[in-house]
Specification:
The complex is a heterodimer of chains A (about 160) and B (about 400).
Chain A (H helix, E strand, L loop, with lengths): L2 H7 L6 H8 L3 H13 L20 E9 L8 H8 L4 E6 L6 E7 L2 H12 L5 E8 L5 E2 L2 E2 L15
Antiparallel strand pairs in A: 1-3, 1-4, 2-3, 5-6
Helix pairs in contact in A: 2-3
Chain B lengths: L8 H4 L5 H10 L5 E2 L11 H12 L12 H15 L9 E4 L1 H13 L5 E6 L5 H7 L3 E6 L10 H7 L4 E7 L11 H13 L3 E5 L24 E6 L12 E4 L2 H14 L5 H13 L1 H25 L11 E2 L10 H12 L1 E2 L1 E2 L11 E4 L4 H18 L1
Parallel strand pairs in B: 1-10, 3-4, 3-5, 5-6, 6-7
Antiparallel strand pairs in B: 2-8, 7-8, 9-12, 11-12
Helix pairs in contact in B: 3-10, 4-10, 5-9, 11-13
The chains are: A alpha+beta (about 160), B alpha/beta (about 400).
């Protein structure tokens, strides 16, 4: 695996200068690796992991199960890509089982999300049905625990 | 009243660990980056912690067999067989102990008669020599050197040997040096042990953290299993230091003798820790691999930086310790460590805390985050540059 990618996956918050030190590369080489990963569409971009419930202007999030009609030639792709392009859509996955797409949506209010579903999503030709679940509380976000006091490992400063 | 007169003579003369007073100084300071910590910075993987919680919920709160839970001993035998090529019987060749520390103590108490000589390589873990002294044995230190990457050599053993030597204690990979032996070097040591009729107590607590060449267990070499007590535990590889859980494997009569000492002193290891240990052995290996990969990269970074800074450092093949020389700075190891701590707030342990043969060296643990390691090296570099 690409060494820079490995370091990123370990979840630390090293700057590119620190990464360069750890991996014995120049900062330019680190940036080169990142560019290469982007070119290969492996590394898509940086985004912070946030606990939005602590933000005053908190967001509403919903998970929507969508059933769609597959098409000859393209299967589910054309519709899935079309749905994915909406700004409201955070993530979109093709699923096995009782529905086809699982769509994660964010909006500033319940009404916004509801109107996105009723006016945009449901009206697309080929969408058979939607089932919307609003998220009430997040306990873990992309590997980070919420509302759990960080673990003080309490190591002594010097031990044999 | 002078209460000191009640203290046993051999305890009065027993020196305190050289780490103790250093710890007192560091503990009082703020903003110290400590490279002086001999335990993983990782918290025990959650699935192991969860298994222990589950055991408590199910009412696992009782004594276990003196030898330890049979399920754990079976899991140990499977693990040791697969990783070390050693075949032990769970019924009478395994003893679960309160960490390897207890296993060492119990082994020495079971085996050493007053005046028996016990060889150990030095620099070494702080408890080896005192544990021998406490059993009224005599410690025989065998030096290891930076020129050999701190591997123990048969030649060094040969010249340190004296009549009355009965036991050789090994700790490969070694705390504090990270040194270990190749299969060939170990083969020469094995021949020496057979030749001199020595019993080997082999503490292999850092074996999973071997970065190059794979770990070889001395007990797996021809003729060695019957004269080896294999000691291992969960502290380092599984990040379970505070659980205090380890084990000894060896010939049934020796395990039986150790069990006698263990049953009258410790009774059994904590059942909660034993339950956690079972989970660690059965499902913990992915976690071990992940942690080893991180230590590996940190080692490469730290050792390279030390050498750049001018603190000559061999490449430790195992453990999470680097053992750089400070002689180029013109300072002794203790003076260097104290001065560095005071001026740059970085703590490293003076090599002499691990015996006389650690003179001129300091131990740097890289069981800490990249951010801390990068910053520590920057500070050390600034400090060393200031000395010129």
């Amino acid at each position: 695996m690409n060494p820079v990618l490995k370091l990123l996956l370990e979840g630390g918050s090293l700057t590119t200068a620190q990464m360069a030190q750890v991996l014995n590369l120049t900062e330019g080489e680190i940036n080169g690796h990142l560019e290469q990963l982007k070119k290969e569409h492996i590394f898509l971009g940086w985004r912070p992991v946030l606990d939005l419930s602590r933000e005053a202007a908190g967001a509403v999030r919903a998970v929507i199960e969508v059933r769609i009609t597959p098409e000859r030639g393209g299967g589910f792709n054309r519709l899935a890509e079309r749905i994915s392009r909406f700004d409201e859509v955070e993530s979109c996955y093709l699923m096995s089982g009782g529905y086809d797409l699982l769509v994660f949506v964010t909006g500033s209010s319940l009404q916004r999300v509801a109107s996105f579903v009723s006016e945009k999503l449901s009206t697309i030709e080929g969408v058979i049905s939607t089932s919307t679940h609003f998220m009430l509380r997040s306990y873990k976000e992309q590997g980070y625990l919420m509302d759990v006091p960080s673990e003080q490992n309490g190591r002594l400063k010097v031990t044999p | 009243m002078d209460t000191n007169r009640f203290v046993a003579r051999h305890v009065v003369t027993l020196p305190k660990s050289g780490i103790r007073d250093f710890f007192e100084i560091v503990a009082k300071m703020k903003d110290v980056i400590s490279l002086g910590i001999g335990e993983p910075d990782f918290t025990t993987p959650w699935h192991i912690r969860e298994a222990a919680i589950y055991a408590l919920e199910k009412g696992k709160t009782h004594y276990t067999s003196n030898l330890g839970l049979i399920e754990l001993r079976r899991a140990i035998c499977t693990y040791v067989g697969r990783h070390y090529g050693l075949d032990y019987k769970p019924e009478d060749e395994v003893l679960v102990t309160v960490g390897v520390s207890e296993a060492i103590d119990v082994a020495l108490r079971a085996l050493v008669n007053p005046g028996d000589k016990v060889m150990f390589h030095q620099p070494c873990y702080v408890s080896y020599h005192p544990s021998v002294t406490l059993t009224h044995g005599l410690g025989v230190a065998v030096p290891t050197h930076a020129a050999d990457n701190f591997a123990l050599t048969a030649a060094a053993l040969e010249s340190a040997w004296e009549p009355g030597c009965k036991i050789l204690m090994l700790n490969l990979p070694c705390n504090p040096t990270g040194g270990t032996c190749t299969r060939e070097q170990l083969g020469q040591i094995a021949r020496f042990c057979i030749d001199k009729d020595l019993l080997v107590i082999s503490d292999e607590i850092y074996s999973e953290l071997t970065f190059e060449g794979g770990h070889v267990s001395i007990g797996s070499l021809p003729g060695m299993k019957e004269r080896t007590i294999f000691l291992h535990g969960f502290s380092k590889a599984f990040a379970m230091t505070g659980w205090r859980i380890g084990y000894a494997c060896g010939p049934a009569p020796l395990i039986d003798a150790m069990m006698k000492v263990h049953q009258y002193s410790m009774m059994c290891a904590s059942i909660i820790s034993q339950e956690g240990a079972i989970e660690a052995l059965i499902r913990g290996e992915d976690g071990v691999k992940r942690m080893r990969e991180q230590y590996h990269r940190r080692r490469d970074f730290v050792v390279r930086r030390f050498n750049e800074i001018g603190l000559t450092c061999h490449l430790p093949r195992g453990s999470f310790y680097a053992f750089p020389s400070v002689t180029a700075t013109g300072k002794g190891e203790r003076e260097f460590a104290m001065d560095l701590l005071e001026k740059e707030r970085v703590a490293m342990v003076p090599g002499t805390a691990f015996g006389e043969n650690g003179r001129g060296f300091v131990r740097a643990s890289f069981a800490t985050s990249y951010e801390q390691l990068v910053e520590a090296c920057t500070r050390i570099e600034r400090y060393v540059a200031g000395l010129r």
